[in-house]
Amino acid sequence: ATNTPTPGGINTGSGTGGPTLVPSDLVINEVMADAWPSFDGDMWPGGEWVEVKNTGNSDMDLTGWSIEDQAGKILPFNESHLVDATSAGYLIAPGTTRIIAVNGNGASMLNNGVEMLNLKWPNGSISQQVYWTNNQPGFSLVDDPNSGYMTYASYPTPGAPNPLPITQIATTTSPVSMTELLSNSSNDGMPFPDGEWIELFNDGTSDIDLTGWSIIDGMGNITMIDPSTLTANETQAGTTIEADSRRIVEFTTGTELWNFYNHLMLVDDVGNIVDAAWYTTDYGTNVSLIPAEDPTDPWTPAPWMTPGQPEPGAIDNTGEVMFSEIMPDAVGSDSQQWPLGEWLEIKNHGDQAIDVGGWKLQAASRTLTLHQYNMPLQSTSMIAAGGVALIALNGTSSFYLKHTTPDSIGLVDATGAVIDTISWSSTVEGESLVAPNSTHAGAGPDGTGAGGGT
Question: What is the CATH number of domain 26-152?
Fold first, then answer.
């Protein structure tokens, strides 16, 4: 409410609650604030733009409407900015959208970081406010009803209905899915295995021809799956993916996989989205990504790359040994000898003693073979039932735990089977890490909880 009514004039509001809003059937539906590959200040169809939608039941006249940004810059709905105003006029039909292009002639308007837009009636009253706090190049923004802020669309759709969120967009089931990808390679644009790639897996009982299939990224780029993008192997050529087999899609021309943030959608030959992947972090060069345990979470780093092979952790365990605690960021130098420096421990959850001699710690580009000499709290490599073994890295250059960037490691038994994998994204110097909700106290540096090897 306001104690200063302004009939026929601009509603400015009062107090600390912000301006008084006069809602309308016209709403901001989608925003491109950080254009790519064009520049922000380019002319339509490049550059920045705002899409508005008529949510009502009758035509609306856009004459005199405008958008104002947080800095007070005005984007009027006129022939310089309302796309196709000359040919289509100023009416917007029910349920349809129109594009308001910034057309900056080299100057941008919309902030890539924190921004607020006011949608204004012809009399200057504010009908809607939208907000965002960050951007990714080429990604458009749509309303997120759960947060009140705009969020990334699965891919830009100017002039078309907004797509479902990336976590809900795969609405058709298929035996073919994306199972691993490399978005940050040492040689982007080069053929597999040196460049970027996505692994497809057919877990069905029949061979499938991928002719007409494609991959769409979060910027709307389309990569067709054909003989030029599918790598051939000894048993599979052309565009067929055999039952219970994998194929690799490589990215050598045109589309590249963004290192830090991306959406990826697998589309079948009739246009159905059958699978989706997304990631939000650059885990470093030549670190592949695999689906998270929760399918609604971003993809996570794999302990090591396995293109064309089962992913780490995708095969059955051969024992009941698991990581229980790690120290990736020791006080002082991480490469100090025990009892300083980095260490980790593994626990035998089984009911029989297990010999882990010859097992390996494995991660991208590094490995360490386990034996009693790197288990300072016991004299053999046996772990008693219910016991833990502490493994000291002792500054070895062959294996280390990252703490300035996210990391992921795996435990592999003597047959090469993956027993357990863990990952983490942040550390604090001198603090160990355990699994979420774990009550594990651990062996710890004093060794009081160590399993007595026999």
Answer: 2.60.40
Question: If we measure between CA atoms, which residue out of 148, 164, 236, 161 comes closest to residue 200?
Answer: 236
Each domain of the chain, given as residue ranges in start order, spans 26-152, 176-301, 321-424
| Alpha carbon distance 257, 248 (integer Å) | 14
CATH 3.30.70 fits 176-301, yes or no: no
- Residue 388 has a CB neighbour count (10 Å cut-off) of 25
* Residue 116 in tokens: 């607020």
Query: How many angstroms separate the CA atoms of 247 and 242, rounded?
Result: 9
Contacts of 397 (CB under 8 A, 6+ apart): none
Give the residues of the chain that fall short of pLDDT 50: 1-4, 8-15, 314-318, 443-454
Residues 169-214 pLDDT 10s: 999 999 999 999 999 998 998 999 899 999 999 999 999 999 999 9
The alpha carbon of residue 29 and the mean position of all alpha carbons in its chain are separated, in whole angstroms, by 23
| Cβ atoms of 287 and 314 closer than 8 Å | no
DSSP, collapsed to helix, strand or coil, labels residue 85 as helix
How many H helices and E strands in the chain?
A: 1, 31
d(C-alpha 391, C-alpha 409), whole Å: 14
Instruction: Show the CA angle centred on residue 135, arms to residues 364 and 25, nearest 5°.
Output: 140
The residue count of the chain comes to 454
Query: Which fold does the domain 321-424 belong to in CATH?
Result: Immunoglobulin-like (2.60.40)
How far apart are alpha carbons 292 and 163 in whole angstroms? 23
* 276 to 155, 251, 273: CA distances (angstroms): 12, 17, 8
Element spanning 87, H or E? helix 85-88
Q: How far is CA 244 from CA 99, 107, 201, 208, 214, in A?
A: 46, 53, 7, 11, 20
178 Cβ contact list (under 8 Å, min separation 6):
198, 199, 200, 201, 264, 266, 275, 277
Q: How many CB atoms lie within 10 A of CB 425?
A: 12
Picking from 121, 78, 112, the residue whose alpha carbon sits closest to that of residue 98 is 78
- The b-or-e profile of 198-218 (16+ CB within 10 A means b, else e) is bbbbbeeeeebebeebbbbbb
Please tell me the distance from the alpha carbon of residue 47 to that of residue 9, in angstroms, as a whole number.
33
- pLDDT value at position 267? 98
Q: Are 100 and 50 in contact (CB under 8 A)?
A: yes
The token pair that represents 75 in the structure block: 């984007």
The Cα–Cα gap between 209 and 335 comes to 51
SS3 374: helix
Tell me whether the CATH fold assigned to 26-152 matches the one assigned to 321-424. Answer: yes
| Cβ atoms of residues 368 and 359 within 8 Å | no
Structure tokens, 219: 């910027």
- List, in order, residues 6 or more apart from 126 with CB less than 8 Å away: 11, 19, 20, 21, 22, 118, 119, 120
